[in-house]
Specification:
single chain, 3-stranded antiparallel β-sheet, 3-stranded mixed β-sheet
Length: 141
């Protein structure tokens, strides 16, 4: 996604464009995988941790990004693909490597439909597969 596309998405969601908001979105987009706050800090060494966190919080509130719990103890963030409000259709399966501790998106693999019992209303779902990524499999004896 180009800088102009990010600017358009921010504007579409009513978020004022700032350099930090643009930079955080660009870093998440360029990573092509979910990043934790710590990983964003490493990629943006001149940015203050609290500023990055406040930016992530704002982007979450406006459904420009979503957070993933991968079991590592840290939330990871990625750009929503949907142009409208965050939809369950936008969610996909994630893979957590237990050796290198990276989380990968399986964007092509959608989360299976879950039929909820009567009276329950789902707002989100997290489908996490854990194991070893191809790089770690190669380097594991």
């Amino acid at each position: 996604m180009s800088g102009n596309e990010i600017e358009e998405r921010l504007e579409h969601r009513g978020v004022k464009l700032t350099a930090m908001r643009l930079l955080v979105c660009q870093e998440l987009e360029q990573a092509r995988r979910p990043l934790s706050l710590r990983e964003l800090e490493e990629r943006m060494p001149t940015a203050d941790r609290s500023t990055i966190f406040r930016t992530l919080t704002l982007l979450l509130q406006h459904h420009l990004i979503h957070a993933i719990e991968d079991g590592s103890g840290a939330l990871r963030y990625e750009v929503c693909e949907s142009d409208d409000h965050h939809l369950l259709d936008d969610q996909h399966i994630h893979f957590y490597c237990e050796l290198c501790h990276r989380t990968f998106c399986f964007r092509e693999t959608k989360i299976p439909q879950v039929d909820m019992p009567e009276g329950f209303q789902m707002s989100s779902i997290n489908y996490m597969v854990k194991g070893l990524c191809p790089n770690c499999v190669i380097h594991t004896p």
